[in-house]
Design brief:
Blueprint: H1 3-18, H2 23-30, H3 34-41, H4 45-57, H5 66-75, H6 81-92, H7 99-113, E1 135-146, E2 152-162, E3 168-173, H8 179-193, E4 199-202, E5 209-211, E6 218-219, H9 221-230, E7 233-236, H10 246-260, H11 268-283, H12 295-302, E8 323-325, E9 331-334, E10 337-340, E11 352-357, E12 362-367, E13 373-378, E14 386-387, H13 390-393, H14 397-408, H15 414-427, H16 432-442, H17 448-460, H18 466-487, H19 496-503, H20 511-517
Parallel strand pairs: 1-4, 4-7, 10-14
Antiparallel strand pairs: 1-2, 2-3, 5-6, 8-11, 9-10, 11-12, 12-13
Length: 522
Amino acid sequence: MKTEEGWRMYTEINQLIKIGLNKSQVARKMKISRPTLDKYLAMSPDEFDRYLYGLKERSKKPDPFEEDILCWLKEFPGISAAQIYDWLEERYKTLPFSEGTLRRYICILRQKYKIPKTTNSREYTAVDELPMGKQMQVDFGTIKVPKNTKGEIRLYVMCFVLSHSRYKYCEWQDRPFNTDDIIRIHENAFEFFGGVPEEAVYDQDHLILTSENHGDLIFTQAFSGYLQKRKFRVYMCRKADPESKGKVEKVVDYVKNNYARHRTFYNIDQWNEDCLSWIQRRGNGKVHGTTRKIPAEVFIEEKKYLRPVLNRIKLNTPALSLTYQVRKDNTVLIKGNRYTVPKGTYKGPHTYVKISYTDDNELIILELDTDKKLGQFKVPVDKGNLIRNNDHVRDKSRKVSVLIDQVAGRFSDSDKARIFMESIRLEKPRYIRDQVLLIQKAIMDAPLEVMDKALDFCVKNRLFRATDFQDAMNHFQKDKHVIDNTFDIKIPSLTQEKLEKIKVTPKIRDMSEYINALGGKQ
C-alpha cells in the first residue's frame, strides 16, 4: 500500500464514521474486511503512520524470486500462480513459502506493475462421487506451443482420470490420433494405473463411436474388438454435454494451461517424459482442490478395486505412432529402459527412430524414413536397464580394411595409397568408411596418371581427407585435358588437286597496264 493511498483511506474511514455510517457500511464502501476496519479505527494517526512505514520496509518470503516471477508475468500475462510455483520448484527444488503465499504475492505484483490476468471462464456441473474402481473419464485436447527452433507446433493430448481418487495419466503426440493410437494409449494408461476400472466415459469421438443410433452405441471396428478383449463398460456423453465428464475436462484444461502453455517443445519423447514427471509431482502429488486429498495417496487404496491387467493387448498393425530421440551414446530411451542402436545412428540432436512390437512382445527399432531395422529386443519387466545388441558394438574395422585394400590396389603404388587411407582413419576413425568410399568414387574411370599425381600431392602436403583428394583429382584432370589439347594439332591432308593449285604461278603484268586502267599517263 502506498503512503498517499493509505492516508487517504484512513482519513475517509474516520470521516464516514463521524457522519454516522456504521462499520459494516464503511467496510463495504471501502471494500475492506471488518477486522481490517477495526484495526485501522483503533490506530492513532502516529500509529497508522508507523504501520504504513512497516509495510513499506517489511520483506516478503517470495522477494528473492521477484525477478523470475516478474519476468514470467511480463512474458506470459495469462500465466497462473500454480504454474509459476511449479516452475520455481523445477528451478530451485524447495521453496520457503506455500503456493497460497505466492498467489497473494503475485496479486501484489500484478497491481504494482499493472499486469492484468486474462482468463477464460467456463462453468461445470458437479458430479456425485463414485465408488473406488468404478469409473475413469477420458478426453482429448490440443494446443500450440513454441518450438526450440522457430515457430510453433500443434500437439495433441489424451488424458485419463480415475473418478474417485482423481489419479491422472496423459500422453501426447505431435500429430492427430488414430484408432490404433487410442488403443495403444489405453494400454499404457492401464499399465500406469495397474488395472482396469468398471467403466469409461468418453465424448462422441469418431475414432471410438460410429453412431449413437438412438441409444445403441455402434463403435468403430477396431475399438469394438478392443472392448471385447478388455471388457469394460462405456458411457458415451451426449453432444455438447461436457459436464458429464467434468473431472477429465478440468484435467485437460489443467494439463494444457499449467504444463504445456509457455513451455518450449524439443521432441515428443522428452515432452512426454517431462509431462509424466510433472503430473506425478503436481496433478497426483498435490492436494486436490475439491476432495482436499492427495490423489496419489487415495489411489493406493483405489488400485485394489481395479481389475488386474494380466497381458498387454497387441495391435494387428505395428504401433509406430511415437517417435523416439536417439541420444549421443547411440541409445534410445523407451519407457524407462535404454536400447542400443548401431554406432553412427546418432547424427545430431534431431535424430529420431520409431518402434513396433512383435507378437512375442519384442521391441523393434526402425529408421524413421526407410523403416530399416536397427535392432530387436526383449522388453524387460522392470525399468532402468541398458539392453544391448552385441552387433551394435562389434568391431567392423576388418571390413573397412578389406575395402582399403581394394581401393589401394587401383593405384600404381598401392602401399602409398594404403598408408594415405590409414592416415585418414587415424584422423577420422568414425567416418573412415565414408572417406574411402568417396575416394573410390573419385577414381572411378579416372586415368592412372591423374590418380597417382593426386595421391602424391595429398601425401606430400599431408592432406588426409577424401575431399582434398577429390579436389586434387579434379585439378590434375583439367591439366591433362589442357596438355592433350595443346599437342593434339590436326594437320589437314593434301590431295592431288590441292597440290596442282600450289604449283600455279601467278601472271605478272606490265606496269603500263595498271596506269592505263587508272586513267593516268606515262
